[in-house]
């Protein structure tokens, strides 16, 4: 038979166990970003262009007549050059490499930037064929971000290339 | 002393103090710190039971599940709401107890030798428990689920496992479909099933497993969790919206602590910590540790194949095979990898009785470092040298309170590997060969290094387990004291009290008939 002091002790300790679980199951509260901030998620998954080379007449002459394709397009995909500026300041300068053993898969990037809510100037430039100089996709726009908003920068060639959402 | 040994020793001292402090209100059998594994398993069954109800009644689909679980919490609070809260709080409790169990086994040095298998099979369970827990939060698909899902995918993307960033699945609200919910259900059902399978493997090489704590502990724990569920029911946050970042949220630090840690540091730091800790846990058994003691040895000529050692071995180290020379008989066989060298098998062997007249007492199963014959010889020598009004023999567990300082002219101290290795007939033998009383110093209740030594000792003395102490032995001349390493004064006090009692009864008529082995007809 338990003594009264033992019963009281057990009640206190079981109560402390429950209180410990109850407290740390919900507290302290957590906020991932400050309440006056927003997120820009730059996420692109894209197949780089194939880096084709025009065969010379001599090369073509050496090939069987039925295989004289004018362009030599290897399986590998081009690296992708990607840049992003926020309010005129560079926030990303990177080269994305194609995935896969034969470098023939998509190039992919996922970055998130925590920025103060409000108006910003965002510019994103991409070149998916490094044989050609410069950037073949450019998107620059003034954006207004609400506190807690998530703005996505993505790429879809069917939607005209780079887009903000 | 290495840093690891010093750290382990320090934590061990703290843990032991806490355990012994809880003995006062709970007693050994109900002390939660002495039954962390069983407590954890109990909470896991609460999680499974409440989860089955939730799974049965929740609507499937990523939006429907949010509304239906909201209905449970608010409209059906008296059943579904309470079960949901129980599910969450029991899961938190399970993870907490699991970590405490890990720390306890580590600081007690229970990760090498015959415990290697349990240690190695326990480490992956940590990962499974956390994966199941994190996946459970996603199912609700509220803002906390969104935060966890996005943060987890960002963490996973640091590893070179996906060709495309998995966080892209959570870019915009229309990225999520009901197929995501189906995947979550698979994760949240499949991983716990793996966890249960892993737990089965974890305790596979242990016999007499405490699958559940005592009824009193179960009822009290359930009452505490129910009270918590009523006072602070688990509720959903606002629904997930991937177009926004969740604001301030009530956060489950038991399960989701990894996300703030990743935000505070980086995925590289988090993975380094997780993989590093896991590798360290796996590597612990190869760090320097005490050499294993000699394991039990079977003597085929004296083994009767009675199964008692098989029944009493705490670590399933004994199996019975057909006797090679006696058709129809069985023979005990010891697996050296599993043997804990506790000697409990020697204590259970009916051939270990000291009343056998043979000069060399060879028993069926024995410990090379403390054979039964040596124990009998030592006892006979000690009894012959005892003088005084009340001569007491103290059989003391080497891992319990240090009894050596109690040895005097009227007190003989016989250290044992574990009190479970003492055949009860030795108690009667001591009383019939000159002792006025026998005191057995076991570990505290529930605190036996070999799990069952203290329990078997008490059951054998009480006649509840074979081999039992004969009823003709007067109970007043036998005293059992549970005194752990730090309880030397408790043991000394108990001995003094026992002596006082014997002094007042020494002339009484319950003295057993003297026994002289050399003149006996016993074989």
From TrEMBL, chain A:
Protein name: Uncharacterized protein
Species of the source: Candidatus Accumulibacter affinis
Keywords: Membrane, Transmembrane, Transmembrane helix
Transmembrane region(s): 6-25
Source taxon at top rank: Bacteria
TrEMBL record, chain B:
A Pfam family hit: FlpD
UniProt GO cellular component terms: membrane
One GO molecular-function entry: electron transfer activity
PROSITE patterns in UniProt: 4FE4S_FER_1 (PS00198), 4FE4S_FER_2 (PS51379), CYTB_NTER (PS51002)
Cytochrome b/b6 N-terminal region profile domain sequence ranges: 1-215
Span of domain 4Fe-4S ferredoxin-type: 294-323, 330-359
Membrane-crossing residue ranges in chain numbering: 42-66, 116-140, 180-201, 217-235, 268-287
Alphabetical GO biological process terms: respiratory electron transport chain
Keyword Cell membrane annotated: no
InterPro entries: 4Fe4S_Fe-S-bd, 4Fe4S_Fe_S_CS, Cyt_b/b6_N, Cytb/b6-like_sf, Di-haem_cyt_TM, MvhD/FlpD
Keyword Transmembrane: yes
Keywords assigned by UniProt, alphabetized: Iron, Iron-sulfur, Membrane, Metal-binding, Oxidoreductase, Transmembrane, Transmembrane helix
Record PANTHER family: CYTOCHROME B
Assembly information from the UniProt record: The main subunits of complex b-c1 are: cytochrome b, cytochrome c1 and the Rieske protein.
Stated name of the protein: Hydrogenase iron-sulfur subunit
Species of origin: Candidatus Accumulibacter affinis
